[in-house]
Amino acid sequence: MGGALSLLAVNFVIAQIFAAAFLVIAAKRRPGRPAAWCAAGFAIASLAAICEAVLPFTPVPKLFAVGAFASVLAGFCLLRFGLGLFYGVPSKPWALAAFFAASVILDLFIYDLPRGTLRHAFFYQAPFFLIQAWTAAAVIRSRRRSYADWILIGFLAMNALHFLVKIYAAVAAGAGATASDYLQSPFALISQAFGAALIVGTGVAMLGVMVKDIIDKARASSETDALSGLLNRRGFIERVAPLLPTRNAEGPGALILTDLDRFKGVNDTYGHHTGDEVIRQFARVLLELMPSRAAAARLGGEEFAVFLPGVGLSDARVVAQGMRAATASTPIPGLPETATITASFGVAAIEPGEPLETALQRADKALYAAKAAGRNRVESAEPSARVVTPAVSQWIKRKL
């Protein structure tokens, strides 16, 4: 009994540590609520250790035996609810409550059945298997497929299978003649040892996916322009530069640099609130008309960039012309109906092996040519072989 009691204490401490860790994560805006539910799940499941430790010494063993069962199952249901919120596959609270209530009633019903039999073990372990399988299925349905997600799916699946194995282990090893004899049985030591390992593995995997989510959100925030919702300059360069070595019949792709015409006049005449709305509407035009694999960014002020992977110069010009026409026909809240917003575009095909900063410089020259030619037009850059670029780094410094 001493070994099983020690493992109960270890499991209790481990569950409390994970509850505290999830509470720390819950302090973050995202994933606050899911982490709070997971913290509650670990905290409530840990109460089972107290119930099982009291079993040999209480005159009402049925109360504590059912309490241990209910504590673990309630904890698993809360974890299912929390992970469902996190992965966007929420479960109905009434469905979890009904499942929990039916399972506890089943445990009360089988309490007096002979222990150590296949029938008793099956009905006792089945609810735990079902809730773990239900949770794993929710993560799979979310279609998130990072390494952290796969690891969590693996541990949840192992947890579910572990409860199936316990059905046969309880019969083969012996789970004690009564609930009070549980801690003295060989099965108790096996069950608590495997349970401790799976608690640690699953808890770490859950923490991993949530911490990764926090890091990913922070990184996305640092690479996103708050006003337009597009990438900022840093995010654009980090997203596009690794794609340029990709081989394609049309070359690495094309760049479109675009600048809203006479934007300062909009701010001066109609106010910065209307100017912000112009930025947002123009960003929507770029997103709606660019291909799905393209990347768009607000480089600063009223200047934007679009990268079209695997697209040649002629096709890029067609995209730019569509963006130009759509911009001129898009109504802007706060502007009179007679006011029209236009933009100028410079397009450059990226040559194989050409650095991103060189292609940006050529597109920038084409953009300024469009401005000089009267605005609200599209101009193409000459091939890089015909462009002398003695001070590429100066252009990047000026833009950054």
From TrEMBL:
Class of this enzyme: transferase
* Protein EC: 2.7.7.65
Which keywords appear in this protein's UniProt record, sorted alphabetically? Answer: Membrane, Transmembrane, Transmembrane helix
Write out the GO cellular component annotations. Answer: plasma membrane
UniProt cross-references to SMART domains, sorted A to Z: GGDEF
Gene Ontology terms: biological process: cell adhesion involved in single-species biofilm formation; negative regulation of bacterial-type flagellum-dependent cell motility
**What reaction does this catalyse?**
2 GTP = 3',3'-c-di-GMP + 2 diphosphate
Name the CDD domains on file.
GGDEF
User: Cross-referenced InterPro entries, in alphabetical order?
Assistant: Diguanylate_Cyclase, GGDEF_dom, Nucleotide_cyclase, Rev_trsase/Diguanyl_cyclase
GGDEF domain mapped to chain residues: 251-383
Q: Which domain of life is it from?
A: Bacteria
Keyword Acetylation attributed: no
Where are the membrane-spanning stretches?
Answer: 6-27, 34-57, 63-87, 94-111, 123-140, 147-169, 189-211
A single Gene Ontology MF term assigned here is: diguanylate cyclase activity
Q: Does the keyword Transmembrane apply?
A: yes
Designated name of the protein: diguanylate cyclase
